[in-house]
Amino acid sequence: MMKQVLVIAAACLLASCAQSQASKQKIQPGIVKKDTTAVNKNEAVATFGEGCFWHAEIVFQSLLGVRDAVSGYAGGTVANPDYETVCTGTTGHAEVVQVYYDSTKISYATLVDAFFASMDPTELDRQGNDEGTQYRSIAFYRNEKEKQILDAAIKRINDSKQYSSNVVTAVEPFTAFYPAEAYHQEYILNHPGNPYVQNVSIPDFEHFKKTFKGPFKN
Description:
This protein is an alpha+beta fold. The chain has one domain (about 10-210): Peptide methionine sulphoxide reductase MsrA (Peptide Methionine Sulfoxide Reductase, Chain A), CATH 3.30.1060. Helices cover about 30% and strands about 20% of the residues. It has seven helices and eight strands. The two termini are about 30 Å apart. Residues about 1-35 have low confidence and may be disordered.
C-alpha cells in the first residue's frame, strides 16, 4: 500500500501496493479520537492483525462498545520496533490493532466475528496487494476462553466451505503490543484523500458494514 508519510524507507514503499487513481468518495465511519492506551475500569483488551492497520482501525472503531482501536505492532521478537523495520519483514511483528472495549456492550466473540468478516483469512502473509509477514492474519488470545472462541470460529469458517481453502489465521498467546508512530493513528480520518485510502481502505470498510450485522455505532 502507498503509505504517504514524511519519512519512509524506500524498500518499504516498494513493498507497498500500487497507487491507483483516487476516487472522490469520502468516509464517515464515526471514528472516535485517540485518547490513551491505558485500560479503563471494567474495560477489556483484544489484539488483532488483518493486513494494513489503517483498515483494522476503522473496522473495530465502528463497533458499538469499542472505545478505541490503536494501531501498532505485535507478534515479533524485536522490542520497541518502528514502522521502517517492521516493514522489512525481519522483526517478526505484524501490523495490528489493540482494541479497547466494554465487554458489557460487545463480546469478545463478536469482535472475533468482525475480525474474520473484515478480511480474507485464507490469504497467507498478505491481504490483497499488501504482501509480507507483517500483513499476516493473526489473532492474539489472553486466556484459554479466548483461544477456544478463536479456534471455534476458524472451525466454523472451514466447515462452512465459504472459501476454497482453509483459514490460515495464526492464533497465538499475547505477549506485547507496541503502539505505532503517531502519524499512523487515525490515518484514514486524517488522510481521506490518500489514493490507497480512497481505493482500498474505504471500499473494504463499506463492504464490511454492508455484510456484517454489527452492532455499529450510530
